[in-house]
């Protein structure tokens, strides 16, 4: 890797993606903010002296164009953070096929497309690190998050398969997953605000209320761990999963 890593972060305009972009910039990386939020994405990129790339992660054409843009502007890619995601609540009974497929297209297919598009450039760049953002609901589950749980469980196991493939082909690309718990992000805030008050109260008691550390996480606490996985300090890690949940899944 070069002294100044080139990093592409999906969903980089807000939440964990933004915190990651800030952490990577602070560690000396040049960041490409990839998002569907044009104005906010450009504002964030400008504030970090980075670049903005419009990207719908569920689109293969968008992915190919984004990677081409990175290669044209930076000549290489060292770090990919597959962070973009959506959260659709619902039980087996209430989840529609449309909701289920939409959630998987962004949260799971988007990660697949990102890895597939990025690995060739990363290999050509001499290797690198891919960090796929899963969730504690990729390991444990909640009855009100069926589609989300399915998508994040897929990210967890797919990450290991891609890590093994990249190692077997000697690409020099490491692939790991991060599993945040409940973090103060727009995804969590919007999901809870969309619930009826009684349901939101019960959900809070069942989630944050059962977190041993007794609080919700901050995006920077996830971004710092992602920065570690992006760095050479994690050079012997691939196919691993890191849980950052205040102890929630330890019960």
Description:
The chain is of the alpha/beta class. The protein is built from 8 helices and 7 strands. A 7-stranded parallel β-sheet has the order 3-2-1-4-5-6-7, with helices on both faces. Strand 1, helix 1 and strand 2 form a beta-alpha-beta unit.
Topology:
Elements: E1 6-10, H1 15-26, E2 30-35, H2 38-47, E3 51-54, H3 60-74, E4 79-82, H4 97-124, E5 128-133, H5 146-168, E6 173-180, H6 186-193, H7 197-206, H8 219-230, E7 241-244
Parallel strand pairs: 1-2, 1-4, 2-3, 4-5, 5-6, 6-7
Helix pairs in contact: 1-8, 3-4, 4-5
Concise overview:
This protein is an alpha/beta fold and 251 residues long. The chain is 47% helix and 15% strand. The protein has one domain: 3-Layer(aba) Sandwich (Rossmann fold).
Domains, number: 1
CATH architecture identity: 3-Layer(aba) Sandwich
Structural class: alpha/beta
Radius of gyration: 17 Å
Percentage of residues in DSSP E strands: 5-15%
Q: Please give the largest β-sheet.
A: 7 strands, parallel
Q: Unreliable runs, pLDDT <50, ≥5 residues? A: none
- Principal-axis shape equals globular
What is the CATH H-level superfamily? NAD(P)-binding Rossmann-like Domain
User: Helix share of residues?
Assistant: 40-55%
Q: And the CATH topology?
A: Rossmann fold
Number of helices: 8
Quote the distance from N terminus to C terminus: 39 Å
Mean pLDDT: 93
CATH structural class: Alpha Beta
List the secondary-structure elements in sequence, H or E.
EHEHEHEHEHEHHHE
Major sheet strand order? 3-2-1-4-5-6-7
Tally of DSSP β-strands: 7
């Amino acid at each position: 890797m070069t002294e100044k890593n080139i990093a592409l972060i999906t969903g980089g305009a807000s939440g964990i993606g933004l915190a990651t972009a800030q952490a990577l910039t602070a560690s000396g990386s040049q960041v490409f903010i990839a998002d569907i939020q044009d104005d906010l994405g450009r504002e964030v990129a400008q504030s970090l002296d980075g670049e903005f790339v419009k990207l719908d992660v569920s689109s293969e054409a968008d992915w190919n164009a984004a990677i081409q843009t990175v290669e044209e502007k930076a000549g290489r890619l060292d770090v990919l953070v597959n962070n973009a995601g959506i959260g659709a609540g619902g039980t087996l009974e209430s989840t529609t096929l449309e909701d289920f497929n939409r959630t998987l297209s962004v949260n799971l297919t988007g990660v697949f497309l990102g890895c597939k598009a990025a690995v060739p450039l990363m290999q050509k760049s001499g290797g690198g690190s891919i960090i796929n953002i899963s969730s504690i609901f990729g390991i444990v589950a909640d009855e009100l998050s069926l589609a989300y749980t399915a998508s994040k469980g897929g990210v967890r196991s797919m990450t290991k398969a891609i890590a093994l493939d990249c190692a077997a082909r000697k690409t020099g690309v490491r692939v790991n997953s991060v599993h945040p718990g409940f973090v103060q992000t727009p995804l969590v805030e919007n999901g809870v605000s969309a619930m009826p008050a009684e349901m939101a109260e019960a959900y809070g008691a069942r989630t944050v209320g059962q977190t041993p550390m007794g609080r919700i996480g901050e995006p920077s606490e996830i971004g710092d761990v992602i920065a570690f996985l992006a760095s050479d300090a994690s050079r012997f890690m691939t196919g691993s999963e890191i849980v950052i949940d205040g102890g929630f899944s330890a019960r």
